[in-house]
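Our preliminary data section would be incomplete without showing what the modeling component actually yields. Below, a chain of 185 amino acids is followed by its predicted structure, encoded as tokens that our downstream tools consume directly.
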Amino acid sequence: MQDDKPTPATSQSEPSAAASREPEGAAATETMPSLEELLRQAELQAKEHYDAWLRAKAETENIRKRSQAEVASAHKFAIEGFASELLAVRDSLEAALQAKDAAVENLRDGVELTLKQLTAVFDKFNVAEVNPVGEKFDPHYHQAMSMVPAEAAPNTVVGVMQKGYRLNDRMLRPALVTIAKAPDA
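Predicted structure:
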């Protein structure tokens, strides 16, 4: 009767389970690269990243050098257009000086035309005249040279000794002015 008893399932299934596990374990180790292979791949990737970093660093340095050269060139030739426009004014002044026995009226007409040329150049490059007669004194645009008694309100510009000039919104030179002082009490 003992022979008729079935053997427990665990004893029969253990060898088959172990046999079925071996191929899985063997398959897992076959697909997993070795540590040496992983290290070699990591070193290759590190070399690629290092090379890319060196190229990016060199490119950045080239851009920096190119930008510095462009800024230096811009500073050096910034007034090129302005200067070339002023050449016509200089030519007119030299022509006036070379005139022999010119009448005063002819010289005056030539100087007026030259002044018109200069004014056109200033307009083209946004150089504006500051002529503040009758305006309230503003220390940002005017430099007071003296205070004089006048009919105008106190701190009003009553005379301009030298006009000022502004380039766009920046002062090139403040106007030299006389201002009205408050009446003595």
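The radius of gyration is 45 Å. The chain is about 55% helix and 20% strand. Preliminary results of this kind motivate Aim 1 of the renewal.
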